[in-house]
Design goal:
Layout: H1 3-12, E1 17-22, E2 35-39, E3 42-46, H2 50-63, E4 70-75, E5 81-89, E6 94-98, H3 102-111, E7 117-122, E8 138-141, H4 144-151, E9 157-161, H5 166-176, E10 183-186, H6 190-202, H7 207-210, E11 213-214, H8 226-244, H9 248-264, E12 268-278, E13 287-290, E14 296-298, H10 303-319, E15 323-328, H11 331-336, E16 343-352
Parallel strand pairs: 6-7, 6-9, 7-8, 9-10, 10-11
Antiparallel strand pairs: 1-2, 1-5, 2-3, 4-5, 12-13, 12-16, 13-14, 15-16
Helix pairs in contact: 1-9, 3-8, 4-5
Length: 359
């Protein structure tokens, strides 16, 4: 079974996935690199016994609320305690545009160039049709409050309120603030938006809730036309998105490349940064693929740290076995990386395609 092809298929079908990999003990029974694939809390495939798979799944579920890649330990049925690394693969972020007027339409067209699932909502059939907004992945013609109940916004959503009037803006904002979201922006003049937020505060909305709203919406680039306003909004969304995950686009390319490698039965070594301490060029979760000819896709920081990892990766081509390595960046090495101080990086190296167990 192809691991990364399975992950890509799950994402295409609208499901997130978790790939859990053992990282400790190099003996035959507990070698690093053995895997489990989870989706919606179910074990889809595993290199472990059914009993141990359930133990690992249960341990992961206990920490899954953090929605972060993570290291954790599990006591197997044999009594051995193994360390595991869970990597989460989530769906493309959603851009939810509330309002299908001129600005909403311009947002659709510009966002189509980016990695978003675009959802546009309007309660008027004329402004929620595919002929008007061909760039939208999904169009909803319904009352705004009903649409928001249907969409159930989450931390993976970027929400822009650009409806046709104050009453609709207020309704949308009240519904949105009931949920999590990566970004909430509402169009309108400073005076009108200030009055809206002040009235909402008087009606029980907390300061920390209202502080989530980006207003005036968009970066201050002097935008005048609908297209320029849309550019300023998208720029602000990108700023917010990359502040949280600057490596997101790189890691998407890594997944695509892993799918291609599996499909073509090529050879490569995947290096995953599973733990960092101190100042390091990249944080845990970053990945890079090494090829036998020395080519790379992705990064765990570049420089001497990546070169050292590359040397170990080339040894993996000879053994075809996964291994864990630890790099301590000295003050000199840190200076080469452009950092003020050194740090520690723990890296898991795995041959691709995966050849272990039942997967």
């Amino acid at each position: 079974m192809n691991i990364y092809g399975t992950v890509a298929d799950l994402l295409d079908s609208g499901c997130s996935a978790v790939v859990i990999t053992s990282t400790g003990k190099n003996d035959e029974s507990c070698r690093p690199g053995r895997k489990i694939i989870l989706s919606a809390g179910q074990v889809l495939a595993s290199d472990f016994s059914a009993d141990d798979s359930q133990r690992i799944s249960k341990a992961y579920t206990a920490l899954a609320a953090s929605e972060q890649n993570a290291l954790f330990e599990v006591a197997l049925a044999s009594g051995e305690i193994l360390q595991f690394y869970a990597r989460i693969y989530t769906l493309s972020p959603r851009l939810i545009i509330l309002g299908g007027g001129n600005v909403g339409g311009a947002l659709c067209r510009i966002a189509a160039l980016l990695d978003f699932e675009i959802i546009l909502v309007d309660d008027r059939p004329l402004f929620a049709g595919s002929s008007v907004h061909p760039s939208a992945d999904r169009l909803i013609c319904d009352r705004f409050d009903k649409a928001m109940d249907q969409l159930i916004p989450s931390v993976n959503d970027y929400i822009v309120i650009v409806t046709r009037g104050h009453r609709h803006d207020r309704l949308c904002l009240e519904k949105v603030l009931e949920r999590e979201a990566a970004y909430i922006g509402m169009i309108g003049s400073r005076r009108r938006v200030r009055a809206q937020l002040q009235d909402m505060a008087e009606h029980g909305f907390k300061p920390e809730q209202l502080a989530r709203v980006h207003t005036p919406i968009g970066l201050p680039i002097g935008a005048v036309t609908e297209a320029e306003i849309a550019v300023s909004i998208i720029a602000e969304i990108i700023q917010v998105r990359r502040r949280v995950s600057s490596d997101e686009a790189i890691q998407s390319n890594v997944l695509q490349e892993l799918v291609r490698i599996e499909k073509n039965q090529e050879r490569a070594v995947l290096a995953t940064l599973i733990k960092t301490l101190g100042s390091t060029p990249r944080k845990a979760g970053s990945q890079v693929i090494f090829y036998p000819d020395g080519a790379v896709v992705g990064t765990i920081g570049g420089g001497c740290a990546e070169e050292e990892t590359k040397k170990e990766a080339l040894h993996c081509f000879d053994t075809n076995l996964a291994k864990k390595m630890r790099l301590e960046l000295t003050a000199d090495a840190a200076a080469d990386e452009g950092m003020a101080c050194g740090g520690i990086m723990e890296i898991l190296l795995e041959p691709v395609p995966h050849s272990g167990g039942d997967i």
